[in-house]
Design brief:
Blueprint lengths: L1 E7 L3 E8 L4 E8 L3 E2 L5 E3 L1 H22 L5 E6 L4 E4 L9 E2 L7 H6 L4 H8 L8 H11 L1 H6 L2 E4 H10 L3 E3 H4 L5 E2 L4 E2 L1 H7 L8 E3 L4 E4 L2 H7 L6 E7 H9 L6 E6 L3 E7 L11 E4 L6 E7 L3 H11 L10 H7 L8 E3 L17 E3 L7 H24 L6 E5 L6 H11 L3 E4 L4 H13 L6 H8 L5 E4 L3 H21 L3
Parallel strand pairs: 1-6, 6-15, 10-13, 16-22, 22-23
Antiparallel strand pairs: 1-2, 2-3, 4-5, 5-8, 7-9, 11-12, 14-15, 16-17, 17-19, 18-19, 20-21, 23-24
Helix pairs in contact: 1-6, 10-15, 11-13, 13-14, 13-17, 14-17, 15-16
Length: 490
């Protein structure tokens, strides 16, 4: 069985045609660009997504025809919280308000008195990223557009409609809206009231892994994909990425080190002692949940440092191992706080800023660089500590740009006090979507079996913590948190 995975990212969309065992048959990628506006507004023309998807499916279908391969199903995974207003025929009525758009920050602040109530219903406190608050902003600031819209949908809903003619979404996207009751997995009356969203403007909710519809005759004629091909919602990109890294049972954590840092772990049910130092969402593994935490700057902080302190260096990242090896743990007393864009979990402080302290005339830029990387890892350690309140943690599965450095990975293990494992495969999100889709299509009994079959023999490397170094970093992490409380927390 062959399954076409559509992976919708922030800067590009990829289509990967897989065999059920994970063999890659064909890959297509289409790039696009967001529209960055004044005051932190970020939009995108929805046709970027529709045209990219259409071209990807068309080229994949042509490949299948030429090689006499089948495409037995299409599965979709996507960025999760961007909102598109559409009419009854799925035509967009305005640009997508993207997940990173900041126009809703004042509105989120104005709703802080409802944090506890909202968290207890949906697993997240109010934040400007999720789709529900974007819908509230639209109703308050563009009421004519809100009234004209037949549906307010996220990007995967938009693409599914144009493939199938059905307005449907899955629980993973619903749980990123602030509008879905996490226990019932249905739109919640009280949340709809608080965010001023009419129920009829939302899609029908279905479990991840559901077949949301089948390709229409019109889409078949447009792309060459057979009419009636099942279209599966594999769930949000972070949820799928977690599965693709191997977090298929409790005790493991997925850590993606990209522009920011994303941490996810799985749990079989909503923890009874759940607090708002984490986000609880629906998993792509139907019936399970994820705990999610994040920090806003990882490689973006590194790029800032490179731009300001290593401007003339042509091999900045190539020298990173030597710098981390030569500078001892603790960076000769130099300390950093990594809050270049505020702090998200565990306490959601958008006013937090980055700092360096402990500087002397002997402090070098190498000391500052290692202090910055130590602070990034220690902040990740704070979030791992939050996870540990709910789920016993055994090991950390890492991916992303910074994870390519062995010395940095060993430092991570020393700071977290847990084994760190890096798998040699950049396609974790697409692999996770494939795992979900193969279970749906009856190839495997569950996602754990799918992972074991699809990732069988994939190379990996494990980094073990040094107990003495970990104890040193525990003290350093306490010091960093004390600096944050005294100098930054408002």
């Amino acid at each position: 069985m062959n399954i076409l995975i559509l992976d919708v990212g922030t800067s590009s969309m990829r289509g990967i045609l897989f065999r059920e065992d994970g063999t890659t048959l064909h890959t297509v990628q289409k790039e696009y660009r967001v529209i960055a506006m004044d005051d932190g507004w970020v939009e995108q023309n929805p046709l970027d997504f529709l045209e990219s998807m259409t071209e990807i499916v068309k080229e994949s279908a042509q490949f299948a025809a030429q090689t006499k391969e089948a495409i037995d199903a299409v599965a979709l995974t996507s960025q999760r919280s961007s909102v598109i207003p559409v009419d009854r025929e799925g035509n967009h009525l305005g640009n997508a308000q993207m997940w990173q758009d900041k126009r809703t920050v004042p509105l989120a602040h104005a709703m802080e008195e409802y944090h506890q109530e909202i968290f207890e219903l949906c697993g997240s406190r109010v934040n400007p990223v999720f789709s529900g608050i974007k819908m509230k902003w639209l109703r308050q600031n563009q009421p004519e557009l809100y009234e004209k819209a037949y549906k307010l949908i996220v990007i995967p809903d938009y693409l599914v409609y144009h493939m199938t003619g059905e307005f449907s979404t899955d629980y993973t996207y619903g749980s990123r809206s602030l509008l879905m009751n996490l226990k019932s997995c249905q739109w919640d009356d009280r949340l709809l009231e608080l965010f001023e969203v009419d129920r009829e403007k939302l899609c029908e909710l279905k479990a991840p892994g559901s077949i949301l519809g089948r390709t229409t005759k019109e889409f078949a004629e447009l792309t060459g994909l057979p009419e009636g091909t099942p279209v599966i919602s594999a769930g949000g990109d972070q949820q799928c990425g977690m599965l693709g890294q191997g977090v298929v049972k409790q005790g493991q954590v997925s850590l993606t080190l990209g522009t920011g840092g994303f941490l996810l772990t799985t749990c079989e049910e909503i923890p009874e002692n759940l607090d708002w130092d984490v986000i609880c969402n629906a998993s792509s593994d139907a019936g399970a949940y994820i705990l999610e935490a994040n920090m806003l700057t990882c490689t973006s902080a590194m790029e800032w440092f490179k731009r300001n302190f290593y401007r003339e260096e042509t091999d900045f990242y190539g020298k990173l191992s030597d710098i981390l090896t030569e500078v001892p743990a603790g960076s000769h007393g130099c300390r950093a706080l990594p809050y270049f864009q505020g702090r998200s979990t565990p306490d959601w402080n958008s006013d937090a800023t980055a700092q360096f302290s402990g500087l002397t005339l002997n402090t070098s830029r190498e000391d500052m660089l290692k202090a910055l990387l130590e602070s990034i890892c220690m902040e990740i350690g704070n979030n791992l500590g939050s996870f540990g309140k709910y789920i016993p943690l055994e090991k950390i599965l890492i991916s992303g740009g910074l994870s390519k450095n062995d010395v940095f990975n060993k430092m991570q293990a020393d700071i977290y006090g847990k084994p760190v494992v890096r798998m040699e495969n950049p396609e974790s999100t697409a692999i996770g979507a494939l795992m979900v889709a193969t279970v749906t299509m009856g190839c495997y009994a569950n996602v754990e079996e799918a992972f074991n079959r699809i990732r069988r023999g994939a190379p990996s490397r494990e980094y073990l913590p040094d107990p003495e170094t970990h104890r040193f970093y525990e003290g350093l992490q306490e010091e960093m948190n004390r600096l944050y409380r005294v100098n930054v927390k408002q």
